[in-house]
Amino acid sequence: ACGSAPSGGGEAAAGEDTITLGFSQVGAESGWRSANTQSIQDSAAEAGIELQFSDAQQKQENQIRAIRSFIQQRVDVIAFSPVVETGWDTVLQEAKRAQIPVVLTDRSVDSADTSLYATFLGSDFIEEGRKAGQWLVDQGDTGPVNVVELQGTTGAAPAIDRKEGFAEVIAGAPNIQVVASQTGDFTRSGGRQVMEAFLVSQPDIDVVYAHNDDMALGAIEAIEAAGRVPGQDIRIISVDAVKDGMQALADGKINFIVECNPLLGAQLMDLVEAVHAGEQVPARVVTEETVFDQQAAIAALPTRLY
Ligand code: AHR
Fold first, then answer.
1. How much distance in Å is there from the Cα of 190 to the middle of ligand 1?
2. Is the ipTM of this complex over 0.95?
């Protein structure tokens, strides 16, 4: 597949027809991310695609380095999930010059030149934020509702968009106010630390809006350590619907979860095969997602894969 150029495929060299895919993952920051990585690895193996997998440990410079190395190895296709939205044009231009198609997955980039990538497969994060806000508005609280927000990684598309979608919907309910908002970097420890600080600095917290389950789980630890009851004294809304989050929802510690589906592997491999074959692909492929309350979580848990 890589012609006469070195494939970087290691000893068990791929055959001439085997597609080599260089994939740069964000990191291993959350349960969602682990499920996403597993899905990509399993789906590549199933599709007979040789996967060069690189973990960026949530650092953009590591992703740029990985992409440059994929270009040097002359992989057939590059896919990546950009840790932040900005700052990709130079390296994407290098891939374009090398005529290696790029597929964005999970998160997008803010490049004005959309010819720098073939397609973007992933969730509509603004819509996820709207669904989270809509649930809260639908609770019909009449008195003031003070919300603290645990943001995802600063500059990451899901952090920017989930904030925006939520803010858009609660703007219609003046009694709901976000009184504090800070990043917990999509990690459990980050969520716990920020929540501990909020519990000290904010005299009256009614709701936590966490941009992912891991941060919500960290917040639950902080709330319990402060002697309060998560899900009752303080309601919790989060995004993802990974198993640990769904268990907390079933247990009444989280009140509502907006799903973000990490099982993108099979669709990604289909797109990789199509762009490699020079076929037309849609510029945007949006993932189908739902929402869960406690009853829905109890029903879904026994068959939840991640
Ligand atoms: O980009 C998807 C987000 O990244 C998930 O919601 C979060 O858990 C992950 O770290």
1. 14
2. yes
